[in-house]
Amino acid sequence: MKIAVLAGDGIGPEVTAEAVKVLKAVIGDSAALELVEAPIGQAGVDAAGDPLPQRTLDIAREADAILFGAAGVPGDEQIPYAMRPGASLLRLRKHLDLFANFRPAIMFPQLVGASTLRPEVVEGLDLLILRELTGDIYFGEPRGFRTTASGERQGFNTMVYSESEVERIAHIGFRAARGRRGKLCSVEKANVLECSQLWREVFIRVGREYPDVELTHMFVDAASMMLVRAPKQFDVIVTGNIFGDILSDCAAMLTGSIGMLPSASLAGGNFGLYEPVHGTAPDIAGKDIANPLAAILSVALMLRYSFDRPDFDGKIQAAVSAVLSDGCRTADIFEPGSRKVGTREMGDAVVAAIRNPER
Q: Is the pLDDT assigned to residue 15 strictly greater than 80?
């Protein structure tokens, strides 16, 4: 297993370090594991003058999988795009064609009280948001700034999808639903956007190849409402890049904290990038209080999708569940009666649970 470790900025290095500890614990055989570290984001600028150094891109391409932390700095949006630390991840996704972003939202029963929603709304929650990751308004051209005829400054972006882009994410979504509860909800804004009208047409056509999967459609505004009103109605949600960015963060909070959500970004085969959904959180960086469980659960997804080891995935999931049952909580999921721990202590607890599952 050759894994590129791109820890990045903010809390990225802290949570990635704990994820690596867990990876080593579950693999056991250190000879089977090759970890290659490389800078990205502001760390890439500091090391090589580029948020995505060529050497980092080469290391990522040569690896079997990528473990990513977070990238970006305060004031990122004021920096030209090519030198923006936070844009390094978008550039990496585009270079490696990591178009299928899996974001599961699972409610651990021990954390029902940490959710801001009523227990009956979130108990037993298990949904998957599949976000198309390399198209849409984030990458559409033309984009930029211009001056109108009246002399007013104007910013513009282009939302665009081709049939082939929609087809490939549709097939991934239907296959994912087929392996779960057989329900797929395609989310778009076809009542307003031509781009979304094409999206819906393609999903209907591709859906005929999967008669065993129930296909429904929902506008993104209605989907955002239903995610907080009745989220358990969803099995697999498939949506575009910008809508998926928003909806997946909404789904994160159903589980109690964005610090609990892992993700996998795949290129259509086994190669993928694995990262926690949260960002760099510079306000808590270096304080040993960040929740590493999303990064740790991202390792579990890596072992399942890139290395076909669902047994290792299961061991990590069981260890996280055991640690939560023991009452360990980082600050973001802390409840009265639980025990507050830091980033490193939470990682150590998961490692201990892997090594001694019968304790």
A: yes
pTM exceeds 0.85 for this model = yes
Question: 64 catalytic, yes or no?
Answer: no
Tens of pLDDT along 33-67? 999 999 999 999 999 999 999 999 999 999 999 99
Cα(350)–Cα(170) distance, rounded to whole angstroms? 36
The catalytically annotated residue of 249, 288, 326, 340 is 249
**Residues 228 and 250 sit within 8 Å (Cβ to Cβ):** yes
pLDDT value at 299 more than 70: yes
Tell whether the model's pLDDT for residue 29 goes beyond 80: no
Helix (H) or strand (E) holding 241: helix 241-254
Cα 37 from Cα 14, distance rounded (Å): 14
Active site residue 138: yes
Q: Which residues neighbour 298 within 8 Å (Cβ) at sequence distance 6 or greater? A: 19, 67, 262, 263, 264, 274, 275, 276
Let me know: does 266 contact 133? Beta carbons within 8 Å. Answer: no
136 is catalytic: no
Q: Is 81 a catalytic residue?
A: no
- The reply to whether 189 belongs to the active site is yes
Choose the catalytic residue: 9, 138, 235, 274: 138
